[in-house]
Amino acid sequence: MTHHGAGLRRLTKNDELVRQLKKDFRQAELADADRVMLEYSENLALRPGDCSETDVERLREAGFGDAEILDIVQVVGYYAFVNRLANGLGVELEDYWDPDEVAEAAHVRAHLRS
What is the C-alpha to C-alpha distance for residues 74 and 36, in angstroms, rounded to an integer? Predict the structure, then answer.
């Protein structure tokens, strides 16, 4: 989220939404379908072995069609792949990254995994 916050800000023109999403999407003012999609995406990214047909059915109930569900899975999978490549190769962040935001994001990820 840290890296893509500026792009999301440009798309939504909503600084408060971006701030809420950076902090905790569960507390953000979102449409129900968006919240279901983000919950599924988080689970797929952090606990892929826990995903089941029940999770996919929940996406359908939220209004997502099969093509949209495939898009969600492909985007989550792509980012997981790219991040593992970068981590595996020891790629360092560019100088323009805010160290406090990076540390906060790492803390949130560690909390979610526990």
Answer: 16
**Cα pseudo-dihedral 91, 97, 27, 17, rounded to 10:** -120
| Residue 75 sits in the same domain as residue 109 | yes
pLDDT band of residue 15 (cuts 50, 70, 90) is confident
Q: Which residues contact 24 (CB under 8 A, 6 or more apart)?
A: 108
Same domain, 55 and 99: yes
Return the closest-CA partner of residue 64 out of 33, 93, 91, 88.
33
Domain span holding position 72: 31-113
Give this prediction's pTM.
Answer: 0.73
Whether the pLDDT of residue 111 is over 80: the answer is no
